[in-house]
Amino acid sequence: MTQDLQEALMLAPICVAADGGAALAFEAGVALRAVIGDLDSLSAALRARIPAALQHQISEQDSTDFEKSLSRIDAPVVVGVGFTGGRMDHQLAALHVLARFAHRPCVLLGAHELTFLAPPRISLPTVAGDVISLFPMAPVQGHSTGLAWPIAGLAFDPMRRIGTSNQATGPCEIQMQQPAMLMMVPRRLMQPVVSELSRVDAARWPVPA
Questions:
Q1: pLDDT at 207
Q2: Which spans in the chain are helix H?
Q3: Which pLDDT value is given to residue 6?
Q4: What pLDDT does residue 201 have?
Q5: How far apart (Å, rounded) are the C-alpha atoms in residues 61 and 44?
Q6: What are phi and psi of 158, to 5 degrees?
Q7: What is the DSSP letter of 207?
Q8: Collapsing DSSP states into helix, strand and coil, what is residue 6?
Q9: CA 179 vs CA 61, 102, 119: distances in Å
Q10: Rounded distance between C-alpha atoms, residue 13 and residue 34, angstroms
C-alpha cells in the first residue's frame, strides 16, 4: 500500500489522512497536510507525533472517516488509497460516498482497477479488450462510444440492470445524464482519469442545492 500512496502522490501531491490512514503516511515518510475523522484509530503515540493544528476531529458517528474527509477537502480531484480491499462493508460505504458527493471528483485506487463516479462526460485512451465496468447506484441513463456493448437507450438501475464487464473497442467516451454511475477501469489509466476528472467544465457535476 506504500507503493500505492507514492503513485497517488505523483498526481495528487497533497496528503490528507482519513483517521488511521495517518499511520500509512508516516510509514511511507510522507508529510501530512491534515488528519480528518473521529480519530479513534490513531494510537496515542502516533497522535502525539501529529501537530494539533493538523488534527481535525469530527466526533459524530453518522458518517465514515472517508465521508468526513472527502466532504471537507477542496481540491480539483482526490485520489483515495486504502479504501478498496479488506472489509466489504467498508468498500460499500466508500462507494456510497462517491455517489453522495458526486460534485467532489474522487478516484479510488484498487489493486487492479480504478473506481470513480462517472462525470457528465469522460474520454479515455482505452485499447481494445480493456474491461470497462459500469455499476449504477440509482436509475441512470447515458451514451457511449468505443464500447463493445453501447449503453445508449439502456435504463440502468441497481435492482434491474447493471453494466459490469463491458469492453472497450478502442478509445472510449462515456456520457451520463445523472450523477449515479460508478465506473471501473484498468489501473494503468490513472493519469488520464485524474486529468479528465480535474477538468472544471463538462467533467463536473453541480454542487447539490
A1: 85
A2: 2-11, 21-28, 44-49, 65-70, 88-100, 190-197
A3: 92
A4: 63
A5: 20
A6: -60, -20
A7: P
A8: helix
A9: 26, 6, 7
A10: 13
**Rounded-to-integer distance, Cα 83 and Cα 113, Å:** 12
Residue 147 near residue 168 (C-beta atoms within 8 A) = yes
Alpha-carbon distance of 150 to 148, in angstroms, equals 6
Burial (CB count within 10 angstroms: exposed 0-12, middle 13-18, buried 19+), residue 111: exposed
User: Residue type at 184?
Assistant: M
Residue 187's SS3 state is: helix
The C-alpha cell at 128 is 481494445
**Nearest-5° angle of CA 67, CA 73, CA 79?**
80
Identify the CA nearest to 40 among candidates 53, 13, 22, 15.
Answer: 22
Would you write out the chain's pLDDT as a tens digit for each of its 209 residues? 788 999 999 999 999 999 889 999 988 899 999 999 998 888 888 889 999 999 999 988 889 999 999 999 999 999 999 999 878 999 999 999 999 999 999 999 999 999 999 999 999 999 999 999 999 999 999 999 999 999 999 999 999 999 999 999 999 999 999 999 999 999 999 999 999 999 866 568 988 87
Would you state the cell numbers that stand for residue 206, as one nine-digit string? 453541480
What SS3 state is found at 57? strand
Beta strands in the chain (DSSP E): 16-18, 34-37, 55-57, 78-81, 106-109, 113-117, 121-124, 131-136, 142-147, 163-176, 181-186
What is the C-alpha radius of gyration for the chain, rounded to an integer number of angstroms? Answer: 17
Distance (Å, rounded) from C-alpha 207 to C-alpha 102? 8
Predicted local distance difference test score (pLDDT) of residue 156: 98
